[in-house]
Specification:
Blueprint: E1 11-15, E2 24-27, E3 33-36, E4 42-45, E5 59-64, E6 69-74, E7 77-82, E8 95-96, E9 114-117, H1 123-134, E10 147-150
Parallel strand pairs: 5-10, 9-10
Antiparallel strand pairs: 1-2, 1-8, 2-3, 3-4, 5-6, 6-7
């Protein structure tokens, strides 16, 4: 991130926003990372704010639709888990860096190497992806910040780093 969210802002990372049927990953103005999977319930993680600005991190969010379990991983480690949301089918467009439903949530920074799987990744898979990406440095690789979402979507794609210009889909 280029800066922490201000008291009146939220930085949208990625998801399928729908009113009452959320599937979103975002940093909110309390400097916590939130993962929503239904009508407002979420799990969250509070990373060290000193490490959030100007540094790359791998963020993974997975959802198991059978158990309704949500997980957040930070640099390959499980940091938050819960069984708080439902897995209602999503029909909205998948957006990166801004929400199609909730206005003015532009991500302030760079997002790189986005991947989406049609199944939820295991902890071992997330850890392995992080380890292979960071094997040469021992930390999150630069310039790649990884956002891995096991969303149950039948798509996998990669997005290269962008400038902080506002861009939609």
């Amino acid at each position: 991130m280029a800066s922490l969210p201000s008291p009146n802002s939220t930085y949208y990372i990625a998801g399928e926003s729908q009113n009452g049927n959320d599937f979103d990953l975002q940093f909110q103005n309390d400097n916590r990372l939130y993962f929503y999977t239904d009508a407002g319930t979420s799990i969250s993680y509070a990373p060290n704010t000193a490490s959030m600005v100007g540094q790359w991190h791998m963020i993974a969010a997975t959802f198991n639709a059978t158990t309704n379990t949500q997980d957040i991983y930070w640099d390959g480690s499980l940091v938050s888990s819960g069984n708080v949301g439902s897995g209602t089918n999503k029909t909205g467009a998948f957006w990166i860096g801004n929400s199609s439903v909730f206005s003015n949530r532009w991500f302030n920074g760079g997002i790189d190497e986005v991947a989406v799987w049609n199944y939820d990744l295991s902890a071992a898979q997330v850890s392995s992806i992080y380890a292979s990406a960071s094997s040469s440095t021992g930390t999150a690789p630069e310039p790649a910040s990884w956002l891995l979402l096991g969303l149950g979507l039948p798509v996998m794609f990669w997005v290269r780093r962008r400038s902080t210009q506002k861009c939609g889909r």
